[in-house]
Amino acid sequence: MKPRKAVLFDCDPGVDDAVALLLAFAATDEIDLIGITTVAGNVSAGLTARNACLIRDHAGRRDVPVYAGAERPLRREPVEAGHFHGETGLGDLPISEPKQGVTPGHAVDFIESTLRSAIDAGQKVCIVITGPMTNVASALRRDPRLLEGIECFAIMGGARSEGGNITASAEYNIYADPDAAQYVFNAGPVVYAFGLDATHQVRATPARTARIRDLGSAEARAAAQLLEFSNALPANGPREQGAPLHDPCPIAWLLAPQLFKFKPCHIDVELDSSLTLGHTAVEFRATGSRLQNVQWAVEADAEGVFALLERYLASGRSGKA
Ligand code: BDR
Ligand code: CA
Question: Rounded to the nearest whole angstrom, what is the distance from the C-alpha of residue 276 to the centroid of ligand 1?
Answer without folding.
Answer: 18
